[in-house]
Each structure stands twice: as structure tokens, then as C-alpha cells.
Amino acid sequence: MPIFCGVCGFVGHVTKEHGDGVHPPEAIQYPDNLIAQDFRRGSWGFGGGRGRGSGRGRERNDCNNRVGSESGNPEEMEDEDMIDTASSPSKAIAKYTGGSSSAKRRLAIGELLGHETKTDQLLLMDKPHGRAEGDIIGEEERNDVDETRSLEEDPWLMIGDFNDAMWQIEHRSRVKHSERQMRDFREVLVECDLQDIGFQCVPWTYDNNQASPNNVKVRLDRAVASPVWRAMFDQANIMHLTTACSDHVPLLLEKGGNMQQRRRSKINCFEAVWERVKSFNSIEHESWDDGGLAKNLGDVRTKLAYTMENLKRWSRDKIGNIKKSIERCRRELEEMRMRGREDSEPDVHRLKIFLQELLHREEIWWKQRSRITWLKEGDRNTRYFHLKASWRARKNLIKKLRRSDDEMNGMLTKPFTDEEISDALFQIGPLKAPGPDGFPARFFQRNWGVLKRDVIEGVREFFETGEWKEGMNDTVIVMIPKTNAPVEMKDFRPVSLCNVIYKVVAKCLVNRLRPLLQEIISETQSAFVPGRMITDNALVAFECFHSIHKCTRESQDFCALKLDLSKAYDRVDWGFLDGALQKLGFGNIWRKWIMSCVTSVRYSVRLNGNMLEPFYPTRGLREGDPLNPYLFLFIADGLSNILQRRRDERQIQPLKVCRSAPGVSHLLFADDSLLFFKAEVIQATRIKEALDLYERCTGQLINPKECSLLFSALCPQERQDGIKAVLQVERTCFDDKCLGLPTPDGRMKAEQFQPIKERFEKRLTDWSERFLSLAGKEALIKSVAQALPTYTMGVFKMPERFCEEYEQLVRNFWWGHEKGEKKVHWIAWEKLTSPKLLGGLGFRDIRCFNQALLARQAWRLIESPDSLCARVLKAKYYPNGTITDTAFPSVSSPTWKGIVHGLELLKKGLIWRIGDGSKTKIWRNHWVAHGENLKILEKKTWNRVIYVRELIVTDTKTWNEPLIRHIIREEDADEILKIRIPQREEEDFPAWHYEKTGIFSVRSVYRLAWNLARKTSEQASSSSGGADGRKIWDNVWKANVQPKVRVFAWKLAQDRLATWENKKKRKIEMFGTCPICGQKEETGFHATVECTLAKALRASLREHWTLPDESLFSMTGPDWLLVLLDRLSSEKKAQLPARKHMEDIKGKGPMFQDPCQKEQTCQLNAEKEKWSCPPDGSAKLNVDAAYRTETGEASAGIIIRDCRG
């Protein structure tokens, strides 16, 4: 075991041998600039007495109890620099403050233990900790940890026993770990800007070595590092080694990045930054035209390769290395300024413009590699894109079916039009990872005018011959880790990167196939079928689970089997797929197209950036192929057919949630399967026979180790064991997740939704707010953070505690923290969730959104009453009525409780459109609208009229006006007589009142829920701003400026900037006087308009922009900024400092134009706003229309003018 000297930093001798000057050959020396800092002051896992369970056996070492100072001279060490590594050896932090690059390649920690230490591997192990389990981190401990960050930008690493887990998944025992304690631990790391660098091997570091059920395995030891350190050592990782004499495992820190690793081969890739150069279009067009005329896809491939080579050669000459260009440009600019040159001088000004362009190119370059789709460039988020791309690179390191008839085949194989092929191309994500040719869809979409003829001809040539030209169906496989510590092939998910031309062909086939799936695929399959949702099967499954849990008779005892298919897509048998298509009646031409796409593929694996030798597969479907999910439906339907036949032969008894409900024997979602059968051994045997047949036919393989069974409490243990033995199921409990949702077991509590919070918090560790603008945070919260719980909220009513805690996480991320302290929340959360037209940011209220999503489920039960989900729920909860007018039983499943919660909201906007009037009840249903309001009609006199059809004269299809005015109030009768009755026989149908189209939308129902929650009268339509909406806010949110400038203008308009006056109101500061001019209180208006510095800034800006007259910059009230912007013309708005032109940041906006060029631009813009004459010999048609809500009258105006006006 190596030993460590604390004086000279060598491994191989102890301190007492230091004077001998003997260093063994295998010695490792720490860099001289290593600083070890003491953490003994606090009690957070450091020093102090031993806590509970701290008397565990440890491996000992011969390390000296002191570590040298920065200079390495023991005489120069001060007392405060000492660290007692014998009592707390793992509490030292390795921190670099400079030095040579070779020193930075060696990672150093204040403690070394191990058996195979090398230059690039240091074996680390923790020592006894002081904080007992269950202790909560206090402020003193937080400060102790935070004090280690003397410089925010320094690279630093902390490693050792933190005596706590970060996530519930890291704590394996029968008792759940304290969420509060783990949250406090995570907050400390966030405040210190530290991130876990991950690990490999076993997922725990501590084992109490007790027998089950008292066994506890926890990941207590870890390594955390700052973003700068992670960027410096991006290949570093932690290995959990195995030891025989300790309850903790040793940690081996490997820096990775072997310098002798072979150099990565160059991979062709289209760069979006090329489009920033003016000559790109010409070189791209010339290269494509020089390739000759393309007659087939082989010619298209040749032209693509030729174009790529020319573009790469052109890029080296015109663009070069962007990073080096930025450094060189900055040096030149700095030299000019050091020589006293003014920024207004032409050459300095041009250099500044060029630097801005280079910075924008760098941001685009990193954005393309980060795969971030929710954030746009332009806000200087380059640092965030850089870290995200680096993280990606590190992470990625290595039942009866209806037969198709001739009409269907004719529709599938009719010639493809130009429009179909073009639509297929533009359905592909522009910057999705390209295939082997290196061209993403953006290249084809942007240059479609030039490439269209060749590509369409090549695609049509494939549909005529049904054969791929060599190389067009080549595919690159990249391995995406599915776990934090991938070791075996099963821990990776292979993703196929196909060429865009292949994707166009596949998309054409998919667009023809999708409309037919509803009729072809079994109703028990809910994946990838238009008109069906995954939540349909989830609702049915959870009702079945509820029925199993609530079973009261042993004779009606059922069980559920959750199947796990091993590498389902990779094991698809091509012969079975072709046979299935043939049996379903697909024609020979269609089958030839499909099988050519599947069987002509040639793979090349990309391993750590290098392309391996290509090979040909013999089975499987590509993940990443647009055809893949739809073809697998035919494979999965094989299981559905087998089970349905066993069910028809009464070999398997399906589960019924009630007597009149349809039987459910299986539910499918792609490769996820749930089977239900009576809890008997004989039934299990028949299920096993069916599964064996499915495996033999399709090539699929069921993994018994990952399968699980759900039994009722009445099922005897002996019978359970017998069923498990037949099915070879090894797991003792049912999965806690089903179809990606928490498996309900009684009342749904906040703890069952904890994984959603953990997913969000894990992403927060990657979303370092220092590298994001407020506009970037806004986009992230809306597109990612608030989307994480959407799937779960569409099934369950979320507990109030979960909603509050999740919103708190979002609030804290939005306002951020600095140096360990949370920033002030200047605006109430209720205001932030207001629509932008009402002065908010449009963040979602999670409670209202939850209810809106559940209302969608209730709407689907009304809209699709024949679906399996609707039939099961109707049989159980409203067998003799409709969902809108039935009193439901009190005993129900958690999912039904959620639907009822959404139904309450749905009823407030549901309106019935009259057909024959046979379904709509006059006094119970909403069917008459009073403007934006809905209300139940009141009787004018007592009567027995019930249905609307009794108010209609059947022969003439008109209203019975005398009867209506006799039994209904006058104002309601007037509205009824305005309703038009269809002249042909049609049934009544439901519609959504708050959409002009009558089509239900989650967005519209959310607006209604938000308005009802705040008791406002705003119109809930998604196409209007509403009664209280202020169009004046469009001056801010629709401005053609950077998104972060819009957010700043919004904060200014709300008077919520961190001014001294606002700080004084919050009691952060004692005085509110402006610290610059010292004349007035520093409000938002004063800081941006009145202050002498603001006036001087405007005076300087007038040299470049034509700003509004100074008299317009006046205080007109709290909305002074909105009033100012509303007074200005569009041109002047774009010239305000708060509304900087979007192109200015790119060096192309009005700020960088010559005065004469500005004048020409203004004239062109003015001309564009005028009506223009049509060409000679033609006419132009202009139309407009108006609608009066009070009377229901509408009118339209048309004017036709020729070329003379």
C-alpha cells in the first residue's frame, strides 16, 4: 500500500524519511502549487465526535498528519495551514492556483491509499466522519463550505465521505431517507457551484453488511467539482473499487484523456456558422451545379460528397478557427486601445464589428453541438452552450386485424407528388444529428430551391425501382448511456444517425401509413397510433390495479404481469415482419419499399469520435429511423393476436373492473406490455405458453429478471410462489412505475411524485444560471422545467404539497443566487404566472395546468365514447348516464378522482351544439351562450319539456317560437332563436365555448382555469387577449430586439429593477438616494431617464441613432415606459436604447449603418407599408370582415383594383 509524505508531496515514503532524499521509482509528486484547506471548523461531516454508525472498521494508512504549504517548505508553514489528515484526512480540497500544464494534468488530493497508484490514477479513501446521520446542515456549516471558494473562477475539487445521499435512488433500504436532509445537501452544492462528476461500478459506497431486510446501501462518498475544474478535466471519473476489510469502498479518481490515445478521425459535418458568410450561397450553388445532373439517389450522394469537400476547403480559407480568430482580434483591439486609438476611428470601429461577428459565430457553433432546441442564439449564452456541449460529449462517450384491400394498397402506392416529398423534408428537425454524409436537414431546407429538382428525382427513382443506391442507406450508430455508470452493452442505447435523403423517403412512407393505423392496429395498443394517447392505456391499467387491490372475493382474484423485452427493437426478425405485412394484405410494391428500407442498411459504429469498420445486420430496427416505431407496432400486435386467440378459446380469463365492463387481458405501449389473468397456476401456464410462442416467432426475448407481478392481498403466498415459478419471475414486488407513471397504491401522496422533483433538481445542477440570461431562463422554465411533470399531471391530481415545492424550485431558479445567498424575489409569483398581456411573464400555474390536463381526459371520454378507455370507465362510474350529469360513487381510483377534478372545470366551458336536439337537455346542459358567459336556463313557467328536440318543428327544421317564448325567459328566448338548425339529420355534439372553432384545447381551458382561480372576467380564448388584456404590452414583447432586452424592459415597466429606492422599500438599504448624482431617489425612471449618467448616455447614442425628442422622456405615471413606446413610430421604437435592434449585436444593425444607408432603409420600409399595384393585366383583391356579438350580425367588404389602382 503506497504511503504519503506531507512535506515534499511524494508517494512512496513517510515524513520521517523525508530527510533521506530517497524517492522510489514509482513515486508520484504533487504539484508545488497545491493548496490543502482545512474544514475542521464546521461539523458538517467533518471533525467532532463520531456519529451514529461511525465506529466502522477502516483501512489505515501511514500518512503524516500535515500537508505542506504552497511553497513546500515546512518551515514556512503557518499553524492555520495545518490539516490533521489522521482525524479528518478526506476533508482536504485539492485546489490549483496556477502552474505548468503538466502539473495540471496530475490530480492531487490530501490523502492517498491504494494498491496500484500510477501517474494518472490516484486511489482515494475516506475516513471517519463527524456528523451523525439525520443531522441537518446548518448555516455555520454552509458558511464553512462556502468560504473555500476564495475565487469563483478557480478550478477546485472536493472528494470524500459527505455522509449523505443526494437522491432517494442512492439510498437503498426499507426506510426512505430524509428528503429535507438530502435537499439541504443539494442546496449546499448548488450554492458552492459544485457538481457531482459521476461514477462507475457499483452504485453505492457504504454497506452496513447486515442481512436483509436490515441491509443498507448508500452512496455516501463522491467527488464534486466546480464547472471550471470539470472543463479542465472533462474526462475525469470516479471508480468505486472493491475492498474486503471496510464498509466503505475506496474511490479511484482517474483523470482520463490518455495523451497517447489515437487522434480522432475527421467526421464530415455541415456547420450552421457557414451561413454567416456572404459567399456561402455562391460556393454552395456552384459546388452543387458542378456535380452534374442527378438521375438517381446514387448521383445525389456523389454530389453531396463533392459539395462537402468544397465547403470544407472553403471553410478553412474563409472562416478558419473561430476561437483563435477571437483571441487574435481581441489582442489587436487591446493593442490599438493601449496606443490611445479612439473607438470612433474607422479601423477600430471595423475591428469591433468583426469581433461582434466572431462572437456570434462562436455562439452558433456551440449551440449546434449542445443540441439545445429551446434556446435561441443572440443572448450571448455561448458559455452555457459550451458547457452543455462538453457535457454531451462526455456523457456519450462511450385483435383481429382487418385486411388491407386493393383500395388501401392503391392509396399507399400511388405516385408521390412534389408537395409530399417537400413536406417530408421540412418535417425533419433542421439541426438533428446528421448521418454519414454530414449534412443536416437545415442544409437541404435552406437551399431547397437549388436542390429540389435533383432530390425529388432521386426519391422518385427509388419508388420506381425499390432499391437503394450504394451508400444512401448507410447509418452511423452512437452509443447513448442509459445509466450513470455504464459498463455492459445493455447499459447503452444505440441510436442510428441516418442520412437526410433516407429520412425523406421514410417520412413519405410514414405519412401514407399513419392514417391507416387506427383501423389496422388492435385497440389495446396506444403507441404511435393517431387518435390514441399513452394515457388511455395508463387509465385502463390503473383501474385494473385498483380492482386487484380492492378485490374482496378469492374467486375473483386476478393478477397483473409486467413484461420486460430485452433489446426489443434490435431483435426484430425481418422474416416475421415481412410475413406480418403480407398477412395483413399489404401489396408487393409497398412491402418491397418497406423491406428495402429495413434490410439494405449498413452500419458503422462511432466510438469516442472514431468510425469503426462497417458491417451488415441480419435483424433489428434502427432507433432513429422514422419508420421504426410504426413497424414495431406490427411486431407487438403479434402478441396481441396470440393472447386474443387464447382468450377467445377461453384458455385465459380477462379481468373486468365491473360486471358490465369489457374484459382486459393485455395492454400494450410499443414494447411495454401489461398482462392480466386470473391468479391461478393453470392460467399462468397458458400465459407462459403464449409468451414462448411469441418469442419463437418474432425473435423477441423476455427478461424474467425485470418482469414483475402484482397480486391482491387475498391471494395466498403459496399460489403466488407457484405463479412466479411458472413465469420465472424473480422480483418480489411490483414495479413502482408503470408506463412512466407512479404505480398508484391507495391515496397518492407527494412522496410518490418525488422522482419528478429529483429530475428537475438534477437538471438544475447542469443549468448553471451564471451562464444563462434571464431570457434564457424564461425559455428553459417554459419549455423544460414546466414540461417535466406534464405527463404525470395528465393522469393524476397532484398533491398541494408537491405543487408548492415544485413551484418553489422554479422560483428559486428564476431569481437565482449569488455567492451562496438567494437573490431577492422582486415580483410575486402570481404576477409571473399572469399572461404577458396582463403584465406577467406567462409562467404556468401548476395547479391550473394540472386541472386543464385532467379536463382533456374528461373531454376525450365525451369525444371518443367507443374507445377502450371510455367503455371501461363508463361501465364502472356512469353506466346509466353521461359523464356530465351523473353522481359518481365515492369509492374510486386515484386516476378517476383526477378526471372528476378536471370535469369540474370542463363543465364550465362545455357547450352543446344543436343538431336534432335529441341529446341535449334544456334545463341541465349548457347550450345557449350569453356572450362569453354560459348559464343553465331557468323555467319561466312550470312545464314537462325536457329535450331540445321538443322545441323544434321537425318538418320545417325551425324553432317553435311560441312555445319557446312561453316557457323560457325573454332574454334567453332571443338567444335561442339566433341558433341555426342544420337542414340535414345530425346529432347534437359537444363543443368548447371559449374557442371560436369550438375545438377543445388545453391552452384555452388553462386560461379559463387561471381566470376562475383569480376571479377575473378575462376571455379564455387562446386567440384573443381578453377583456383585461393590454395590447400596449406588445410594444415590449413583440419588439425586434434581443430577448434579454425585452425582459429588462418588462422589469423596468414593472418598476422592479434593483434600484436603491426598491432596496429601501425592502429594508435592504437604509437610503434610496441615487449614488451617482445624489439628487433624487433612485427609481427605475430616474436610473434610466433622469440621472445625469442616463442623459449623457442618450447624448452619446444620438451620434448613431435618431432618438425621440427629449421632451418625450417624461414621467407620465407608473406606465411611463409603456406610454412612451406607444407614442413612438415603429422606426423610432427600434432606435430606443431599451429596444436595441436585433442585428446590432451581429454588427449589421442600424447602429453600424452609414447615415445615407439608414435613410434608404427608412424609405424602403415606408414603401413596404403602402398598397402596391398588381402587375399589368391582373387585379388585386383586398377583403375585410366584421362581426357584432350583440346581434349576431356579420358583414364583409371586398375591393378589387387593377394595375392603375
TrEMBL record:
The record ties this protein, via CDD domains, to: RT_nLTR_like
Specify where the region named Disordered lies, as residue ranges. 45-79
Q: Name one GO molecular function term.
A: catalytic activity
Q: Which residues form a coiled coil?
A: none
Annotated Reverse transcriptase domain residues: 461-727
Which Pfam family would be a valid example here? Exo_endo_phos
| Entry-linked PANTHER family | REVERSE TRANSCRIPTASE DOMAIN-CONTAINING PROTEIN, REVERSE TRANSCRIPTASE ZINC-BINDING DOMAIN-CONTAINING PROTEIN-RELATED-RELATED
Record protein name field: OSJNBa0086O06.14 protein
| Organism of this sequence | Oryza sativa subsp. japonica
- Could you read off the lineage of the organism from its UniProt record? Eukaryota, Viridiplantae, Streptophyta, Embryophyta, Tracheophyta
